[in-house]
Design a protein that fits this description.
With about 280 residues, this protein is of the alpha+beta class. Helices cover about 15% and strands about 30% of the residues. The strands form four sheets. It has a ten-stranded mixed β-sheet. The two termini are about 35 Å apart.
């Protein structure tokens, strides 16, 4: 099942997406948040199957991030060997982890705001994992997927000067500018997605950039969630980003983003985003 949030920023309405229709979930939940994901997914699915939920017109509607502001946005870096190589690094032996601030989360088609003075703003298509059950000290990777509510599409926008030259060793400086985490258009429940073999792609001004599959990840989703749970607590509604494949501007093969550029990212089954750089 697909869930989304539509409406102006800060006033989004929770909806289910079924047969190309938006179905209003406002009578069942205030938002697509941790409480909903941990307690109400089954009842929402039953309500959709039963029919009778009011439809909302799609035309002219802004699409917001499909989850309300999470308590944490936890990111895994260098998780595709080819991307590590193009970045000049060896494949990691354990998770490379950094954080984005939760207020970076924005809608999938909102404008991408290049920071003042930046000449090294970059794109990164990523599989996002949305947590549905609290995960702490999980016993094995086999337990991990049972704590996942679903999956979504993310663009991990990055400012490379702040990430690398001005980082002080902390990547978050280059990852947390306003609007640097477009999410959506949908949250697709875990029962409908095989996270281990999804095609990821990105384009700039219509020209192909990234084209890979999640099967090339060094650490798969189960490993990521299990390993994260050994040193932090993942709460329902939290967003985990799983890394990006090769084909970003940091490689030196492509120019960085400039005002007026159009960035698109897509993952099979999870939809497509489109941002205009401003």
């Amino acid at each position: 099942m697909k869930f989304a949030r539509i409406g102006e920023a800060g006033r989004e309405i929770p909806v289910a997406v079924a047969d190309d229709h938006y179905l209003d979930l406002s009578a069942l939940t205030d938002d697509i948040d941790g409480a909903f994901l941990s307690q109400s997914l089954d009842s929402a699915a039953a309500a959709v199957r039963a029919g009778g939920l009011p439809r909302i017109a799609r035309e002219g509607q802004r699409v917001g991030a499909p989850i309300a502001r999470p308590s944490a946005v936890v990111c895994v870096g260098m998780n595709y060997a080819a991307h590590a190589a193009e970045s000049g690094a060896e494949p990691p032996e354990d998770l490379v982890v950094f954080l984005k601030t939760p207020n970076t989360v924005t809608g999938p088609d909102d404008d991408l705001l290049i920071p003042p003075g930046s000449v090294r703003t970059d794109w990164e298509v990523e599989l996002g994992v949305v947590i549905g059950r609290r995960a702490s000290y999980l016993g094995s990777p086999a337990e991990a997927l049972g704590h996942v509510a679903g999956y979504t599409l993310v663009n991990d926008v990055s400012e490379r000067e702040w990430q690398i030259e001005r980082s002080g060793g902390q990547w978050g400086k280059g990852k947390s500018f306003p609007g640097f985490c477009p999410v959506g258009p949908w949250l697709v429940t875990a029962d409908e997605i095989d996270p281990d073999d999804l095609r990821l792609r990105s384009w700039v001004n219509g020209a192909p950039r990234q084209d890979s599959r999640t099967s090339d990840m060094i650490f798969d989703v189960a490993q990521i969630v299990w390993r994260l749970s050994q040193f932090l607590v993942l709460e329902p509604g939290d967003l985990v980003m799983t890394g990006t494949p090769e084909g970003v501007a940091l490689s030196g093969r492509f120019p960085y983003l400039r005002a007026g550029d159009v960035v698109e990212v897509a993952i099979d089954g999870l939809g497509r985003q489109r941002q205009v750089a401003r």
